[in-house]
Amino acid sequence: MTDVAVYKSEVKPDWCPGCGDYGVLNALQKACAELDIAPRDTLVVSGIGCSSNLPGFFTAYGFHGLHGRALPVATGAKLGNPDLTVIVTGGDGDGYGIGMGHFVHTVRRNLDITYIVMDNQVYGLTTGQASPTTEKTVKTKSTPTGTIELPVNPISLALTAGATFVARGFSGEPNHLAELYKKGIRHRGFALIDVMSPCVTYNKVNTYPWFRERVYKLEDEKHDVTSLEAAMQKAREWGARVPIGVFYQVERPTYEDDEPALAGGSPAKQPLGLKDQSVLLEFL
């Protein structure tokens, strides 16, 4: 096991005090330490938002991209070097709003990447507008009389799109969350971990106490993670009870397994085919 301090950047997080994203970050550092993943073999990609600042607080290769575009960047990186552990971090607005199209297609391709979504059910960076996962009737800066739209259900959506690993965590349960990360990272294929990460500044409805009164662990109820039907039933459960844990996990060939261009191994480690390597060295 690697010392967790190895994954702690010199840049300190600047989220609001009490933000759920601290728990998300700490759990990820803990998970990578326990999996003994070297920072040099890890890439963390993000989009835009409070949550998407995470790569700067985590020691590894990092890429802070455009709003909603983290998954295409991660796809390119994974196909360029399949040996990398690729982790994508973002928020509900970034992933389920402007990035929704990329989300669905990355899921169905079953690329071997892990997607951690910090779902606070509000746009935090832009000071409190309704997001795709904001519950109906909730009043926000952009919906002062209450949201009139039904929220996106990311668990159901991922299952429908063909995800091979779907889980939900809660930043108020950091040890449980770290275990979900470990399972998702070890899984061969696309892994979604939707994390309920309360925004203490702008979301006064879905708070830590709200979740603590409702969350329960799927593993405590002997949920069958291989059953798509059972997963879909649990995905629709929201209100008096909110399930966390692994909803669904199955194995099937990854995109990388079936891509002919990768038959010869990692493109990043292939010879360039230059007769005179000194030309490249001179260029560098």
Brief synopsis:
This protein has 284 residues and is an alpha/beta fold. The protein has helices at residues 21-35, 70-80, 92-98, 100-109, 154-161, 174-186, 208-212, 228-235, 255-258, 277-283; strands at residues 42-46, 61-64, 85-91, 114-119, 165-170, 191-196, 215-217, 242-249. It has a single domain (4-283), classed as Rossmann fold, CATH 3.40.50.970.
CATH architecture: 3-Layer(aba) Sandwich
* Strand residues, percent: 15-25%
Q: What is the top-level CATH class?
A: Alpha Beta
- Unreliable stretches, pLDDT < 50, 5 or more residues? none
- Rg, alpha carbons: 19 Å
Shape: globular
Please identify the structural class as seen in this structure: alpha/beta
How would a crystallographer describe the biggest sheet? 8 strands, mixed
Helicity level, as a percent range? Answer: 25-40%
**Total helical segments:** 10
Helix-strand topology string: HEEHEHHEHEHEHEHEHH
The CATH H-level superfamily is: Thiamin diphosphate (ThDP)-binding fold, Pyr/PP domains
Summarize this structure as a short list of keywords or feature phrases:
284 residues, alpha/beta, Rossmann fold, 8-stranded mixed beta sheet, 8 strands, 31% helix
How would you sum up this structure, described in words?
- It is a single chain.
- The protein is of the alpha/beta class and 284 residues long.
- 31% of the residues lie in helices and 16% in strands.
- It is built from 10 helices and 8 strands.
- An 8-stranded mixed sheet has the order 2-1-3-4-6-5-8-7, sandwiched between helices.
- Helix 1 crosses helix 6 (174-186) and helix 3 (92-98) packs across helix 4.
- The relative contact order is 0.14.
- The model has no long low-confidence stretch (mean pLDDT 94).
